[in-house]
Amino acid sequence: MAKATWNGTVIAESDRFEVVEGNVYFPPESIRAEHFKPTDTHTVCGWKGTASYYSVVVDGEENKDAAWYYPEPKDAAANIRDHVAFWKGVTIEK
Q: Hey, which residues does 38 pair with through a beta bridge?
């Protein structure tokens, strides 16, 4: 079981997840959508592809670009398509 929390609120939880480069990637159905707001931010990884970002919002506080995912990953990263990973103070327990 893996769980992501920010500001004392669980924002994702699943017993099924992927770990890539030390980051836990949660399947899309495991995130609590009410806490996620799409942003216009994108970054590129040489072997995973182009990442898109979400801001995490809890109790009116926003953690900009604290979550990312790969909607169209390269073949080598197909296992994390649409899975969400976190940083910027989001706590991951597994």
A: 54
Pairing relationship of beta strands 2-6 and 91-93 according to DSSP bridges: antiparallel
Counting the structural domains of the chain, the total is: 1
Rounded distance, CA 21 to CA 18, Å?
10
Host domain of residue 12: 2-93
pLDDT in tens, 7-26: 999 999 999 999 999 999 99
Query: What's the CA gap between 54 and 87, in Å, rounded?
Result: 11
Residue 32 sits in a domain of what CATH number? 2.170.150.40
